[in-house]
Write a structure and sequence with these properties.
The complex is a heterodimer of chains A (403) and B (381). Chain A has 403 residues and is of the alpha+beta class. In chain A, the strands form three sheets. In chain A, strands 1-4-5-8 form a four-stranded mixed beta sheet. In chain A, a hairpin with a 2-residue loop joins strand 2 and strand 3. Chain B is α+β, with helices and mostly antiparallel strands. In chain B, the strands form three sheets. In chain B, strands 1-4-5-8 form a four-stranded mixed beta sheet. Chain B has a four-stranded antiparallel beta sheet with strand order 2-3-7-6, with no helix packed on it. The relative contact order of chain B is 0.11. The chains are: A alpha+beta (403), B alpha+beta (381). Chains A and B meet through strand 9, helix 10, helix 11 and helix 12 of A and strand 3, strand 6, strand 7, strand 9 and helix 10 of B.
Chain lengths: 403, 381
């Protein structure tokens, strides 16, 4: 047993940190540091910088252009990325779709799509949920009917995160209504420029545009955009979800957020003293710090075990997803609470870089304040998306406990 | 023991309920929250006509002689409908402060005008370094020419942008003393300041739950001798009494929202189908909903307690009741708000449904006039 990083790993960390410090554009770093709105351009610029250095996909094997890093190296990269304030890469492309393509797609699909993801040329969004199919995903009804060399797709997807940026969408569609619902699902890659696609923004509770609804009206999709076999899509979908949930642990981002929380609680005052010295608040911060400490080690244990045994991850990722999402929520909640009455103002324009605070207002309303309440509201999504906490507990009950 | 409402109280509730059903649905409320004023001037006039704006004022000031239980009834409905009008600031806190501490002439001058909907007031008693502690006052009132000169800054003053007058807490000792004793309970006085007075400036902003607030600056604002409310140096007790009325009202508002959220969530559990059945068939969700019902009942009990003692002149008794209620209801609201969102799934985090608006308002109520931690500490000390 040894929880310490080796000398090689420490050297690797220094190398990663030096690279990110040097290459991350200052304007992007300033935005993430103050919780300002990021645009698509910010995200793709960073992806292209990483790609130019050969680090476009730190979790991919080398044969597809990835770094081939082991789980500890990936963890170190993620920690340094978050700590310095580089934006997260597009998980839908890199961490969800890509493993499916690598495992189930044909070589023509791999050769076309994977390099474009790596180079930041294509933005992918996910087409899973439908208005009537959330937790019960397998009941989905968006239909794809084969007609010659294409499928004709009709239906509606919803909650499509950053769909407004998407060049492509990977979709679960129904190609058969026979047998169990899971047996008639296929995995289609659809060009968002296809005629018949309509995207409508959904405003979230924090007032931001992050998710969308997408309608498909007689959309023609070439048959060569089917991944794997027709009606086997559920297998690929579940494989993808396992990857999605692993990524949701978000240890690096949580560590950064915890650091910010402590800094904020040191700046804010209560009864004339720094808030962090208030025992009630301090204990809450400590509780979440301990949860995160435990999760970091649990996460590495789970990832190391699967790597050592050369197997894909299983239902144990539900533990990571539940805890990771709860920790994110708790930290966001404490950050908001730290503001006290300053959590009340709602200043939409303050999330833009060019916003200049009124000097007297800024004496108490610090630069870190504007995004925090919205972030607390927004973070409620984390126990809902990617399989709600309730679904994760069902998975643990059924697949781990055998209940 | 008597937990029943009087016939007058039931009639009042029914009248307001009728107005809300007719003129204040969710879509209308969203439009109002986005409008420059941030609430409905027509609704305010209606409240005046219904007698709401003079509800807790004495009859000799053209009031209805109501108490905090009457206010509770109104605030519960205000919560359910997410009303945006500045009833809490103008009527409950500022009107209440004038009732309790104002001179007879001030009462006769101000209360009928409040009741008629002619003027609105905001309580400007919190400062940046004080967080929720109203004794942290650095705003200075210097005697000058028989009156006073006021200088300082009040932060996140609720409903300030629409207010015609502010009730401002300030230290009325000399300047050196002011700097040394920011957290001292003594030496604080309350002043009535007109919005139009020279030296008053506002930095207004919307709040996260659709209302309006502002930072209020006072730069050498010249006041006459009659601007002082109550005795010089006795202001903290006056302000705390007004805040306690506000806390009891906020507790009632939260209870109204909690009840409405539970109804919406129960309806969702019964109608939303997944895996071929309404999701309310799943025991994990049934137990969650049961917890939410228990929280609602307990919260209601605490809101009743707060209302019964909110008008008490006995500061210790009153403070124990309202702080206990605020701390308890803050936690109940957190549970119900978060779980209502969770049980609605992604539909809980969109702007289009009222659920997220209820959740946000509950969150902001906890952060207004003292959060859970603040009131746990106040109760236990």
């Amino acid at each position: 047993m040894d929880l310490k990083y080796t000398a090689e790993e420490e050297a690797f960390r220094a190398h990663v940190r030096a690279f990110i410090e040097a290459q991350l554009p200052a304007d992007i770093r300033a935005k993430t540091g103050m919780g300002k709105r990021l645009q698509k351009d910010d995200l793709t610029r960073w992806q292209k910088i990483l790609h130019a250095h050969g680090w476009g996909a730190v979790m991919w094997p080398t044969r597809f252009g990835g770094t081939g890093w082991n789980v500890v190296q990936q963890h170190i990269f993620e920690e340094e990325r978050a700590d310095i304030g580089a934006p997260p890469q597009n998980a839908f492309s890199l961490k969800m779709l890509a493993p499916v393509l690598m495992t189930f797609a044909n070589s023509a699909q791999q050769d076309y799509f994977l390099p474009r993801i790596l180079a930041g040329e294509d933005w992918w969004c996910q087409g899973y949920s439908e208005p009537g199919s959330g937790s019960d995903l397998a009941s989905l009804r968006t239909g794809a009917v084969r007609q010659g060399d294409h499928y004709l797709v009709n239906g509606q997807k919803t909650w499509n995160t950053l769909g407004q940026y998407a060049d492509w969408i990977f979709c679960l569609v129904r190609t058969s209504s026979e047998g169990r619902p899971q047996q008639g699902i296929s995995f289609l890659l659809i060009d968002m420029k296809s005629p018949g696609i309509t995207l409508r923004p959904i405003t979230m509770l924090d007032g931001e545009h992050e998710i969308n609804e997408i309608w498909f009206d007689n959309v023609q999709v070439p048959v060569h955009n089917l991944v794997g076999e027709q009606n086997k899509g559920w297998t690929y979908a579940k494989f993808l979800l396992t990857h999605e949930r692993t990524n949701n642990a978000g240890i690096g981002s949580c560590k950064r957020a915890l650091k910010n929380l402590k800094a904020i609680a040191s700046r804010q005052t209560a009864h004339g003293r720094p808030l962090i010295e208030e025992p009630r608040f301090r204990d809450r911060v400590t509780q979440v710090e301990l949860e995160l400490m435990a999760l970091e080690i649990t996460n590495l244990r789970v990832l190391s075990a699967s790597a050592d045994e050369s197997r894909t991850l299983g239902p144990e990722v539900s533990v990571l997803k539940i805890k990771g999402s709860e920790i994110q929520q708790t930290i966001a909640e404490l950050q908001m609470h730290a503001l006290g009455p300053d959590a009340l103002p709602y200043l939409r324009e303050a999330l833009e870089m060019d916003w200049i605070a009124d000097p007297l207002f800024a004496k108490h309303y610090h630069p870190y304040a504007p995004p925090l309440t919205g972030q607390y509201f927004n973070m409620r999504k984390t126990t809902i998306y990617a399989g709600s906490t309730e679904i994760q507990k069902n998975i643990i009950s059924q697949l781990i406990l055998g209940l | 023991m008597d937990f029943s409402y009087t016939d007058e109280q039931l009639a009042l509730r029914e009248t307001l309920q009728r107005f809300i059903s007719r003129d204040y649905d969710f879509e209308r409320r969203r439009e109002l929250a986005r409008s420059p004023l941030g609430f409905s001037a027509e609704a305010w006039a209606q409240y005046a006509e219904l007698g709401l704006l003079s509800l807790p004022f004495p009859e000799d000031c053209r009031g209805f002689g109501g108490n905090a239980v009457d206010v509770m009834l109104v605030m519960e409905l205000a919560g359910r409908a997410l009303l945006l009008e500045p009833f809490l600031s103008t009527v409950v806190m500022c009107g209440g402060l004038i009732c309790d501490a104002g001179s007879d002439s001030l009462k006769r001058q101000m209360l009928p005008r409040i009741g008629a909907g002619e003027i609105k007031l905001a309580l400007a008693c919190h400062e940046a370094a004080g967080r929720y502690d109203a004794s942290q006052v650095t705003c200075a009132a210097v005697p000058s020419g028989g009156g006073w000169r006021l200088t300082g800054q009040k932060t996140v003053v609720l409903d300030a942008p629409s207010a015609d007058y502010f009730l401002v807490s300030a230290r009325s000792g000399d300047a050196a003393e002011t700097a040394a004793v920011a957290g001292d309970a003594r030496g604080i006085s309350v002043f009535l300041v007109g919005r139009e007075a020279r030296g008053v400036t506002l930095f207004p902003y919307p709040t996260q739950s659709g209302g309006r607030a502002a930072d209020v600056r006072l730069a050498d604002v010249v006041l006459g001798p009659d601007a002082l409310i109550g005795a010089a140096g006795a202001g903290l007790a006056i302000v705390l009494r007004a805040i306690d009325k506000g806390i009891a009202a906020l507790c009632a508002e939260a209870v109204g929202i909690i009840a409405a959220l539970n109804e919406a969530t129960l309806n969702h559990l019964k109608t939303r189908k997944q895996f071929g059945v309404p999701i309310g068939k799943f025991q994990a969700l049934q137990h969650r909903m049961a917890d939410m019902l228990i929280a609602a009942e307990q919260a209601r009990s605490m809101a009743i307690m707060a209302a019964v003692y909110a008008d008490s002149p006995d500061a210790a008794e009153r403070c124990r009741a309202v702080s206990g209620a605020k701390a308890y209801i803050g936690q109940a609201a957190r549970l119900v708000g978060q779980q209502a969102v969770q049980l609605h799934g992604a539909m809980g985090v969109v702007d289009d449904l009222i659920v997220s608006h209820y959740f946000k308002r509950l969150t902001m109520i906890d952060l207004t006039l003292g959060d859970v931690d603040f009131h746990l500490a106040r109760f236990s000390s």
